[in-house]
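Example record

One chain of 424 residues, shown exactly as stored in the release files.
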Amino acid sequence: MKKVLNRTKDIKFSKVLTVAVMMALAFQAPAQIRKALKTEEGTIRFLADKVLETTSLQLINHKTGENYRDIKGLATSADIKLKSKYVDWHYENGVLKLALMRMADILKDPKYSNYVTATYTYAFDQLDYFKKLYEDPDNKKPSLFRYFKMNMLDDCGTMGAALVETYQLNKDRRFKEYIDRAADYISNKEHRLKDGTFVRDHPVEMTLWGDDLYMGCIFLVKMGKMTGEMKYLDDAARQVINFTRYLYDEGDQLYNHAFIIPTKDHTPAYWGRANGWIMMAQVELLSVLPEDHPKRTELLSILQRHIRGIVRYQGASGRWHQVLNRTDSYEESSCTAMFTYSVARAVNEGWIPDLYRTVAERGWQGLKEKITEDAQVRDICVGTHVELNAPFYYNRPRSVNDTHGLASTLLAGTEIHRMRQLQK
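Predicted structure tokens for this chain:
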């Protein structure tokens, strides 16, 4: 009986000890997270490493739940898709890959560029399978469908741009074939106005979207840098100047989201992320444009004017609003990250006075408050099309860790980290 009692005490003690250990770990984890978030490098690694850890290079049958390493021996089925959203061919994934490549460069850590190479390589390895699905008229939007479609900038701009950088590390001929196809599409086949400005033919015909300035220019910039051919940078410069002429409002010093050519209507709200796309396009172009380029002075003036405009609308929290000039709209994370990145980059490059440093720093502090303990970013506006009513922009849903905001947060943190290093 005594032995039984002792054994019972041991079991109870063991349970108490287990609970105590679990509680200690539970308290320790947030403490470790708080420590990581104290520095810009710790913060962006915290977010990026979660992406790396949760990305699966597998296929999944969404009906049965079965996983597959690759396409070998698989019968064609519309139920089979890429398991990880980060591997698929979407423009926001292109921005994420660009952010990770930037991190790899600034932090001197190849694990992030290796990840980008691995995800591209895996996607290319599965192309034959998903091409069959794409060619089936009864199968709508299989994985990688935008790779095959290529009839708008969303299909190839950012994914092509990040692939240009990846190709320079890994000379996979398949990468080069796609890059050449994307360059031909953007330069020769993309819908344009008579003056050469990018324009959409759908979902609303003849509309000029601020988003497309980044989607097109980022590819042109990367191609210009890789090939040394000035025609790409000249085209990007023309786009920035023309988009400014069509979308910029002199009074409010902000860009409209879109311009509907047939009716001469501008969208009725200054959408934050549209301004973010436009500003990032300007920054990326200026970062590679030769000092003696005939349009450089004009382009630099356009960026400086845009920065002066958005600074007027930064909130006390350091964040910007979904509708930039309306404080009754919610504070939105993706545009906050885009402006933080762009202003920090402009300070770092000496394009604007050092006094603007505090704009970027406050933006970063406000953005960090939106990062959760499970490595997600809150209050990101979902993907948004064009509407001619202001409530549409006010009422766009907020999401958690939408790739638009995650990618731009990594860019912002990387550039703030660079700012700190330059200060030292």
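Notes: The radius of gyration is 24 Å.
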